[in-house]
Design a protein that fits this description.
This protein is of the alpha+beta class and 400 residues long. The protein has helices spanning 68-73, 90-102, 156-183, 203-210, 214-240, 245-272, 275-278, 285-324, 328-333, 349-357, 363-369, 392-399, and strands at residues 3-8, 15-19, 32-39, 49-57, 60-67, 76-80, 83-87, 107-112, 117-128, 131-133, 136-147, 184-185, 201-202, 337-342, 384-388. It has 3 domains: 3-31 and 50-147, Elongation Factor Tu (Ef-tu), domain 3; 156-333; 337-399.
Length: 400
Amino acid sequence: MSTIVIEELDGQRRTLTLVGPALPLRGASWGGEQRLVTTFPPGRGGEATQQVLGAIEEPSEWEGVWNTTRMVAAPSSLRVAGQETQITRAFTLMTTFEDVIRSGSLLRVTWATENRKIQREGRIGTYKFPVDREDDIRWNASFVWTSRGSGNEVSPVAQAEESVEASLRAVNQTLADIQSAIVGQPSISTDTSIPGSSSFITLGQLEQIAGAPRAFADFIGDSVASLRTNVSRTVGIIEKARSQPAQVAEVAATTARQTQSEMLVIQQRLGRTPVEVAVEPNTPVSGVARTAAYFESIADKTDATIQQTIKTQSAAQKTMRAGDARRPEDQANAANVQQTGFARKGDTFAGLALRYYGTADTASILARVNGLPEYQVSPPVGMRLVFPNFTASDGQGMAG
């Protein structure tokens, strides 16, 4: 749940907390400006220089409607000298808010959720209260900021969640590096004085100069492409389920472990046969060297991927531990991902929905959750599937 807390830093040091129906209608906006001085010196061919004067905060314009009927169900509050009073009437909130504004005190304003917090300090410059009725009051206020304060924080759970996502994206990048190395890789020599030397070697050239085991390179390429698809899908799950970091961290850890396992197989196969044995007889020494460089590059990038998967698993474990430390009621609300699995030949979303949820009615929802069109009948064989923890009635609600 979001809250906005307005604290007086001097004077009476009151604290006004806005919740639910008292919050701005369009959310809390934040902005700034990087002050720059751009100069076009003569004789520079239109190339400018810039002087950075520093960033400043732009005013935040907030507006909303205070309605007594809604505020009774979710009251705001005012704390003065340690005593807290609930505010359930629109007119009372208006007079309280105006009194805080007119005091002229420096204000610390904090927008917060369970995992995030944004803070600014300043004063309210202009404000209006168009009164429709005593119990229905529109409001708008312009906050003029002097600083960011010291409370722009992210909770340990959110920090760990972001670390998992960033680490998993890094895994995806290392896999992309392997794909690039397979397609084309800088050779060991770029000295143009050496006849036949080249700064770039492709799979086709490799086949010609060394008779290299291209089938093996194709095998690596297919494996890496499949892994990238799975990693990208897991990153997508993290983006869509940020409110359940501990659950998606478990999925991320599984993805990282399986990627690591595949990479270890590739690494073992790379080191199993010496290049001298793999190339065709009578291959020139330069061809052998270039072939060795080709596979050595892939081996290095494979090792980098393995190391990154280990980091991802570590980050995921931290997220899960951070999630375990939350309140029991928060943990109960976090159960979003039921389990994961791989699609097998003959699987259909209707059959999977029937197996996991006892009804085929959630088939289209299951397809959508896994990033596929709702009308798709079957998932691709080998695709990693996520089975959210929802009931048939939940699925019907999601479809709307």
